[in-house]
Amino acid sequence: MSDNEEQVTFESADAGAAMTYPAQCSALRKNGHVVIKGRPCKIVDMSTSKTGKHGHAKVNLVALDIFTGKKYEDVSPSTHNMDVPNVRRSEYQLVNIDDGFLNLLKKDGDSKDDVKVPEGELGEKIQADFDDGKDLMISILEAMGEETCVSYKEAPQGA
């Protein structure tokens, strides 16, 4: 290496490899997940067109962003791969609600306090039931480095 060349060092970075996996378009199913325009989405409608004179059958996808609810559409040849997000659902016990964030208790006893109270009716119901002194279990959906509260239920007594 000469004196005028810079040495490039790479910081350890998450390339997102574990966040998605490839799947052939023809293997995708309604109510499954797919990444469209870099967003994790749930497929709400899909149709396949017949092969044309010049090629592949096309898959038309209509999907909703699992975090924002925004609608996305995409068309792709059925033989091409698309990214599918690794989606994980976890349940935590609600300990407190503080400054718009849920204070949750993990199974190992650690606390998790980085999930916002959901907006709208779900957040209002969680707040009301918590204020009534009910023990609540919160379902958190995680995908591609994002997470949100998607539902809750009253914890069984003696849990």
From TrEMBL:
Extract one GO BP annotation from the record.
Answer: translational frameshifting
For the Translation initiation factor 5A C-terminal domain, which residue ranges apply?
A: 86-153
Q: What GO molecular function terms would the record report?
A: ribosome binding; RNA binding; translation elongation factor activity; translation initiation factor activity
The Gene Ontology CC terms held by the record are: cytoplasm
Q: So what family is this one in?
A: Belongs to the eIF-5A family.
| Alphabetically ordered keywords of this record | Cytoplasm, Elongation factor, Hypusine, Initiation factor, Protein biosynthesis, RNA-binding
Please indicate if the UniProt record lists GTP-binding as a keyword: no
What is the recorded post-translational modification?
A: eIF-5A seems to be the only eukaryotic protein to have a hypusine residue which is a post-translational modification of a lysine by the addition of a butylamino group.
Q: What does this protein do?
A: Translation factor that promotes translation elongation and termination, particularly upon ribosome stalling at specific amino acid sequence contexts. Binds between the exit (E) and peptidyl (P) site of the ribosome and promotes rescue of stalled ribosome: specifically required for efficient translation of polyproline-containing peptides as well as other motifs that stall the ribosome. Acts as ribosome quality control (RQC) cofactor by joining the RQC complex to facilitate peptidyl transfer during CAT tailing step.
Name of the featured protein:
Eukaryotic translation initiation factor 5A
Q: Where in the cell is it found?
A: Cytoplasm
